[in-house]
């Protein structure tokens, strides 16, 4: 992605995101395209993160292991229900997932509970623990000088 397109995308997504600043949005966009690039190389042309790639991220990055919870998190991110998490869904989903208020997080997972009432009985860890959040953010939100040519 050329610098001009990246800048326009960053500006657009930053306006719609209340929990990340412009630099953080740019870092998350770069991470997204690195992840999608990995998927593309393995599977052909992909417009976003499919369910398996997304679940792998939840498992490897945030230590999630419950298949049902990971599927519900994927559905929460995939707002247009096209089976893929695009860059806009990635940023808005992570905004709530990592930094959302309690009310935002409750609303986010209310949808999952409405779709699967058994979640109330077997509600496992579906949000990242503080250590995983901090490690993820420390890894992704690095010094802006590292983005010399994107």
From TrEMBL:
One of its GO terms (molecular function) is calcium ion binding. Residues 65-100 form the EF-hand domain. Keywords: Calcium, Metal-binding, Repeat. This is Ef-hand calcium-binding. The lineage of its organism: Eukaryota, Metazoa, Chordata, Craniata, Vertebrata.
């Amino acid at each position: 992605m050329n610098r001009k397109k990246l800048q326009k995308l960053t500006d657009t997504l930053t306006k719609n995101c209340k929990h990340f600043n412009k630099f953080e949005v740019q870092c998350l966009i770069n991470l997204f395209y690195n992840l999608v690039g990995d998927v593309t190389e393995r599977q052909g042309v992909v417009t976003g993160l499919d369910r398996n790639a997304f679940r792998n991220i939840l498992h490897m990055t945030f230590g999630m292991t419950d298949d049902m919870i990971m599927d519900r998190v994927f559905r929460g991110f995939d707002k247009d229900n096209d089976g893929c998490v695009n860059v806009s869904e990635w940023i808005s989903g992570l905004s709530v997932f990592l930094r959302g208020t309690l009310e935002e997080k409750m609303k986010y997972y209310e949808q999952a509970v409405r779709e699967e009432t058994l979640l109330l009985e077997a509600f496992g860890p579906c949000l990242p623990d503080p250590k995983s959040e901090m490690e993820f953010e420390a890894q992704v939100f690095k010094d802006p000088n590292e983005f010399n040519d994107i």
